[in-house]
Amino acid sequence: MAVYRTHVLVCAGAGCVSSNCKAVESALQEQLAKVGLAEEVKVIETGCIGTCDLGPVMVIYPEGVFYQKLTPEDAEEIVNEHILKGRVIERLLFKPAASDDLVEKACDIEFFRRQYRIALRNTGVIDPGVIEEYIARDGYAALGKVVTDMTREQVIDVIKRSKLRGRGGAGFPTGLKWQFTYDAPGNEKYVVCNADEGDPGAFMDRSILEGDPHAVIEAMAIAGYAVGAKQGYVYVRAEYPLAVARLARALDQARNYGFLGEEIFGSKFCFDIDIRVGAGAFVCGEETALIASIEGKRGEPRPRPPFPAVRGVYGKPTLLSNVETYANICPIILNGPEWFAGIGTEESKGTKVFAIAGDINNTGLVEVPMGTTLREIVFDIGGGIPNGKRFKAAQTGGPSGGCLTAEHLDTPMDYESLRELGSMMGSGGLIVLDEDSCMVDIARFFLDFTQDESCGKCTPCRIGTTRMLEILTRITEGEGEEGDIERLETLARTIQSSSLCGLGQSAPNPVLSTLKYFREEYEIHIREKRCPSGHCAGLVRFVIDPELCRGCGLCVKHCPVGAISGERRKPHVIDADLCTKCGECQATCPFDAILKI
Amino acid sequence: MEVVANKCQCEALRAKDPRYKKLADIIAKYAGREGALIPVLHEAQEVFGHLPPEIQMLVAEGLDVPLSEIDGVITFYSLFTAEPQGKYKIGVCLGTACYVKGAGDVLDELKERLQIDVNKTSADGLFTLEVTRCVGACGLAPVVSVGDDVYGRLTPDDIPAILEKYIESEKNSNA
């Protein structure tokens, strides 16, 4: 095996691909070849390193130096200065928002330092296209151990004792699910991986599939052995073409090595996996809808019970878990259930991956022990709120979840604590909102989403979400009426209690949760026809501060609808009836005299 | 009375069009497999760009699935379309992160510039405007994709230059 003196890890996660990491990588290869170092320095394309807003990023080992926001033009300097002369290039280092000190090494950056990576253990470390790299990090050792050394019952017992819970949202104990599928009568069973990651703002499943596809494949094979299945399916969203491609390549590699197929590790166990690509329907993340979609039908949910463990794909017992859940399986097998159960809180064991986005300095993917506080995630790891703004709320659980406010910053992030506050863990999307965000509009945004994605099968969800959206829309447009809040609450309770599936049952959560913590904002929208954060265009007014206005007339020239008038050198006024609130005047005023209220 | 044979020309036209051969191959590859419909529709749409009733009928015959069921599946999933699409699909991500970072303004600018609404195709057949669910590039919010290209951290001011790039390259390829 060739030995290299230096390894350069170039992140090829979806975020970095979008910011053109390929060009950076090829420029680097070119420069290395030019100075004759191609045999000494190895450039590796990894999965998501996690710091998505700093992309393209790279880490150079053995030093562990982290470079960010790279362009192809930086390649020459990296090769000539860093790789040839060993001088760190300061201008490419990371500078935390809160300090002026550059941080040289990846392991010293708070964002990485505070993480505990189990599900993401290989993501951003190995080349996802090379199975040998996965094997070198104990890959397929767990599968080997399971099929040669353990009984099916022992495997299920290990998963149960680890107290791992489903990472897709509801947090159902994974071991129990395995037991139910094992117990279900029938010779033909299936193992399914739910990679229909639909929560807007969550991208951990994508990153795992793209950055460490074998972790999921190996875990599914272990699950297949334990529950008695020969066939697995990974159901991936069509919006993730890179994940589909890397997974397909990984499946081929696993088959070539004999980790999938007939007589795995010389045992009698046979197992293979097929990919099923979704076609753009959020509801297919719901397990019974996902099963219908695998069968090639409209992805409409059906009542449970029977649960998939009893009647799933093609009517057969089916074990269905999400990507991140599977990604935890192999380390549990190798390190033992006690190790895993020793991490996290009393009821929520292990770690959780959060996708932090929105109004936050360090957007990206982080994995922390369960029970880490919201404050640590937002401020210590996430680097706080940009532009010196105040933290207003964090939305967890996406369209099914709710918000946490500044007073909840010290809440431990685990299944129970979040549920108590009227939110939920969900898949781990964490959208941070600063003081400029309008909570009514956020609720409207999520209802717009669920209303659009409602499959239409059951009335409470189909009609109920539509009516809620209508009310929320009129409130944000300044047409809110007395009694709207109560109407929203009544509708919410009805939809929650009578919808067929999780989509409908949880759709009102963002409204109920914002009503619980920001009721006043709703009231101001309705009664005073005002948006306190100045976000809702329909409720915003532009006014000219007569103290600051010098009467230059620049705004008059720029107003596309002629809504501004006034004498030269005297304060001007805006006619609110004519104003279309385009904001053009505010942008052009040289004296900052135009205010948005 | 003389009866004029109303002979359908479709067969002859199809024989000349290589896309129909591809469709037949796709159907043959999946025929008889369980759950084949969605993969077949994905690949058929790749070939034809959209799935008009004619293609739906061929799939129905090939897989022995009722046409009503195929129509049901196509209308259920947002990625399938029976309408012709523009050469470039513009997808404005309206995931939460993009929305919070102003994707709505970017979308408005595109509507204004292209003079079309969402899910419509511009008069020159060049662009189809769509809003997409989270594309998972939240670090680059707000994100717009045009064909296979992805543009991040956009403001409405960036839009004219982006559109111009495609209009220009179209002109050059025609010239």
Describe this structure in words.
The complex is a heterodimer of chains A (597) and B (175). By secondary structure, chain A is α/β, with parallel strands linked by helices. Helices cover 39% and strands 14% of the residues of chain A. Chain A folds into five domains: 6-113, Glutaredoxin; 132-340, Rossmann fold, CATH 3.40.50; 351-434, Ubiquitin-like (UB roll) (Roll); 439-528, NADH-ubiquinone oxidoreductase 51kDa subunit, iron-sulphur binding domain (de novo design (two linked rop proteins)), CATH 1.20.1440; 541-596, Alpha-Beta Plaits, CATH 3.30.70.20. Chain A is built from 24 helices and 17 strands. In chain A, a hairpin with a 3-residue loop joins strand 3 (58-61) and strand 4. In chain A, helix 2 packs across helix 3 and helix 9 packs across helix 11 (241-257). The longest helix of chain A has 20 residues, at 509-528. The radius of gyration of chain A is 27 Å and the shape is globular. Chain A starts with 5 loop residues before the first strand and ends with a strand. The mean pLDDT of chain A is 93. By secondary structure, chain B is an alpha+beta fold. Chain B has helices at residues 10-16, 18-30, 37-48, 53-63, 67-76, 96-100, 103-114, 159-174, and strands spanning 88-93, 127-132, 144-146, 149-151. Chain B has a four-stranded mixed sheet with strand order 2-1-3-4, with helices on one face. In chain B, helix 2 runs antiparallel to helix 3 (37-48). The chains are: A alpha/beta (597), B alpha+beta (175). The interface between A and B is large, with 53 and 36 residues.
